[in-house]
Design goal:
Number of domains: 2
Order of helices and strands: EEEEHHEEHHEEEEHHHHHHH
Strand order of the largest sheet: 1-2-3-4-6-5
Largest sheet: 6 strands, antiparallel
Helix content: 25-40%
Pfam families: Pkinase (PF00069)
Number of strands: 10
GO molecular function: ATP binding; protein kinase activity
CATH topology of the largest domain: Transferase(Phosphotransferase), domain 1
CATH class of the largest domain: Mainly Alpha
InterPro entries: CK1_Ser-Thr_kinase, Kinase-like_dom_sf, Prot_kinase_dom, Protein_kinase_ATP_BS
Strand content: 5-15%
Distance between the termini: 23 Å
Protein name: Protein kinase domain-containing protein
Shape: globular
Organism: Pristionchus entomophagus
Structural class: alpha+beta
Length: 381
């Protein structure tokens, strides 16, 4: 419901990073920290090398045990028997993918190990190269040639289809969560980060009944309209956000809400993108609008026709007379060295940053507010 309450800043507990050269052991292997690759709300991602074989380099993702969070999770598990941390969800997705047919695995990295220390849980995964967000922002100056955009759209669509085939929706589709492979695999795109993924089918394979209210998850720039409305998401929501990602790759100015910070205004502009598509000066193949029209007709439980959507992409390429044999724009280019950014204004932060940590803080705050409102209603009655 609107208006949304203003966000209150809340300091996260201080978290000490692992040191370069530090050793972390699982039951079957040991790993040495080489460098830090990134940080999130409850953990970090490190580049590690296997102690037994220094030719084997991986990514290690950690999730820390914060005492208050741990107590809350234990209480939730006692009541609901199914509350999971982000890392536990991610391990569940990796397990399902490992059982999928080989043809459904090519856009996913493998989880090779897992374990925990007294301070954190961790998983060890195959390592990838640059994210699509870093490529777009730093190597391609915001946008790409249409050939590249369509080929990226095709590979990421197939990845979404493959994830849905094992019964999960991602719920955090964005260019930050796709990456290209290591040097010999720079033309291959991988889907990453399943921390807020959700199983959308029950044990019998039927679509689960939607919950009445779901806390806002993800990033405002790349959140579906259902997410804004705090409604249950389904396969069509992953596709909707995929459209935002692809439209931005054609031309970053296509995302007409990219400089907005108000959730209500962002939702209105997303509605406008679908309701007044022809009135907007969007720089993209005209045929791509057919995908947007198709998505608008999908209902909550519908299974999208992914092959049909992929066919529309390649029809767009043919209509625009694009040479699809050309390599991706990033091939043979070097990623510029990133400088530490200055403190950004809210609009710039929304445009450029992944706010996963903000998402977790916002989720806790909204759950607390809802509980207080429910308690107040009980007192009145």
């Amino acid at each position: 419901p609107f208006p949304f309450p203003p966000a209150r800043k809340r300091k996260m507990p201080e978290r000490k990073k692992l040191n370069v050269g530090q050793f972390i052991a699982s039951e079957k292997d040991a790993y040495k920290i080489e460098s830090i690759l990134g940080s999130g709300g409850f953990g970090d991602v490190y580049k590690v090398v296997c102690v037994k074989d220094e030719q084997r380099k991986y990514a290690m993702k950690t999730e820390y045990f914060y005492p208050r969070k741990r107590k809350l999770l234990n209480r939730l598990k006692a009541v609901f028997l199914k509350s999971e941390t982000d890392l536990e969800v991610e391990m569940g997705v990796f397990t399902e993918i490992s059982h999928a047919p080989l043809t459904r695995k090519k856009h996913f990295i493998q989880m090779v190990d897992k374990g925990q220390t007294d301070l954190f849980k961790f998983i060890v995964m195959e390592i990838v190269s640059h994210s699509l967000e870093d490529i777009r922002k730093y190597m391609l100056s915001g946008s790409s040639r249409w050939q590249t955009a369509i080929k990226v759209a095709s590979q990421t669509l197939i990845a979404i289809s493959d994830l849905h085939s094992v019964g999960y929706i991602h719920r955090d589709i964005k260019p930050h969560n796709f990456a290209i492979g290591r040097p010999q695999m720079h033309s291959q795109i991988y889907m990453l980060d399943f921390g807020i993924a959700r199983r959308f089918t029950d044990k019998g394979g039927m679509v689960r009944v939607p919950r009445e209210r779901v806390t806002f998850l993800g990033t405002m720039k790349f959140a579906s309209r259902q997410c804004h409305l705090e409604q249950e998401q389904s396969r069509k929501d992953d596709l909707e956000v995929w459209i935002y990602m692809v439209v931005e790759l054609f031309e970053q100015e296509n995302l007409i809400w990219r400089r907005q910070t108000d959730r209500g205004q962002i939702l209105q502009l997303k509605e406008r993108l679908f309701s007044h598509t022809d009135d907007l000066d969007l720089r993209m193949p005209n045929g791509f609008k057919k995908i947007m029209e198709y998505m608008k007709k999908l209902n909550f439980a519908d299974e999208p026709d992914y092959a049909h959507l992929d066919n529309i992409l390649w029809t767009c390429a043919k209509a625009e007379k694009l040479d699809m044999a050309q390599q991706f724009d990033w091939i043979d280019k070097v990623m510029p060295e990133k400088t530490k950014p200055k403190k950004k204004a809210p609009a710039a932060r929304l445009e450029n940053d992944d706010d996963s940590a903000d998402r977790r803080r916002r989720q806790r705050r909204e759950e607390k507010a809802k509980k207080a409102a429910d308690d107040k209603k009980k007192d009145v009655s």
